[in-house]
Amino acid sequence: MTGRAESPRVLIVDDDADNRELFAYVLRSAGLRVEVAANGREALEKSLTVLPHVIVTDLSLPELDGFQLCAELRRQLPTHQIPVIAVTGSAHHDLHGSARGAGITAVLVKPCSPDVLLSAVVRVLEDREPAR
User: Fold this and answer.
1) What pLDDT shows up at residue 131?
2) Residue 12: in which H helix or E strand, if any?
3) What is the pTM of this model?
């Protein structure tokens, strides 16, 4: 998929277990390594230890919401450049602007089909690869 020796790591962050399981299944089926977290605090801790290549997170999370998580990731040197894809049930008109301002790479609106999620993750991973 990406030409790397090891499959890229993706961290899925969602307080809904069904969403976590579905997203993890889709990404693992595509050959990606997947970690999961159920809240923003757990996601921040895992991000610092696992150093995922991309994070897929809900914006409405307990402990740290998706915006706070992204802000904390941007403050930490090891995680400050990890792309974040937000998957949210909110579709208000200024969401994309708020997300970009918070350092979120892309926003997907729930319900999000597995194909759309996988395409977004692959696109972000390809954008991160160095030019050959």
Assistant:
1) 47
2) strand 9-13
3) 0.89
What token pair was written down for 18?
């069904």
Q: What is the CATH number of the domain that holds 16?
A: 3.40.50.2300
- Expressed as residue numbers, the domain containing 43 is 9-127
Phi first, then psi, for residue 68 (nearest 5°) are -65, -40
Helix (H) or strand (E) holding 13: strand 9-13
Spatial separation of the C-alpha atoms in residues 59 and 76, rounded to whole Å? 19
Q: What is the pLDDT of residues 103-115, one digit of tens each?
A: 899 999 888 899 9
Collapsing DSSP states into helix, strand and coil, what is residue 125? helix
Contact status, residue 99 vs residue 90, Cβ threshold 8 Å: no
Q: Closest Cα to residue 44, out of 18, 62, 31, 27? A: 62
